[in-house]
């Protein structure tokens, strides 16, 4: 009898563990970024949500228009799942492992965590001396040290930056994922060049690229690769960092790991209940 009860207890424990994610009867709240978001574009491509050039994100997804709103939305909903820039991840939400790999800068750099994308700056042909000097700072050993310090992945080993004495105003616009890193880089640069003012506008990757094309800003920010149709308009992309995309759930969700296929099915609407993730 004791042996039977022990086996029964073990079976119950295994069954409870098998559920793995969320509440057994709770519907998944899918949270996505808006059209034009570089993070959405990269995430959808990497997770197989895009097929035949069509983003098949479920129509029932809640759409957020910035990284900060995404974090707030998932933090406030126990049934929610979303995704954010790894460098913007904070302790208000929980990042799950993807295909058994933890979302860390070290794992992105080592090629183990596959959900990653570039951070690009977008420029036209006629760069001002100020814009060129700021880019030189970003790609210098000093700028790339800031990239690593803020939890992103540096991509180059440039020369040491020396203050240039530039003056004037520089306007930068685009990705809300790149913006937090750009704000730190801008502050560091302005501290070295006191006559410079850098204005950063968060408008999404596609809008930032368009602003660079139209000359509304000197530098655009994009958290994805440029499309051929965009480079055909005379702008080029320069990679300044790599970033992982963390798949996030509410801190009260028991889910700690998902496969790429499970994530794809959640975002295409094939899987709608947390209890189906076993």
From TrEMBL:
Question: Any signal peptide, and if so, which residues?
Answer: 1-20
- Tell me the function of this protein: Part of the ABC transporter complex PstSACB involved in phosphate import.
Species in which this protein is naturally found = Ruminococcus champanellensis (strain DSM 18848 / JCM 17042 / KCTC 15320 / 18P13)
> Mind telling me what this protein is named?
Phosphate ABC transporter substrate-binding protein, PhoT family (TC 3.A.1.7.1)
Name the PANTHER family on file.
PERIPLASMIC PHOSPHATE BINDING COMPONENT OF PHOSPHATE ABC TRANSPORTER, PHOSPHATE-BINDING PROTEIN PSTS
Q: Where is it predominantly found?
A: membrane
Matching Gene3D superfamilies: Periplasmic binding protein-like II
Q: What cellular component terms from Gene Ontology apply here?
A: plasma membrane
Top-level taxon of the source organism? Bacteria
Classify the protein's membrane topology as the record does.
Lipid-anchor
The UniProt entry, under InterPro entries, shows: PBP_domain, Phosphate_ABC_transporter
Where's it found, cell-wise? Answer: Cell membrane
Which BP terms in the Gene Ontology apply to this protein?
Answer: phosphate ion transport
Alphabetically sorted, this entry's keywords are:
Lipoprotein, Palmitate, Phosphate transport, Signal, Transport
Q: How does it assemble?
A: The complex is composed of two ATP-binding proteins (PstB), two transmembrane proteins (PstC and PstA) and a solute-binding protein (PstS).
Q: Which Pfam families match?
A: PBP_like_2
Q: Which residues form the PBP domain?
A: 23-141, 165-276
Q: According to its UniProt record, which protein family does this protein belong to?
A: Belongs to the PstS family.
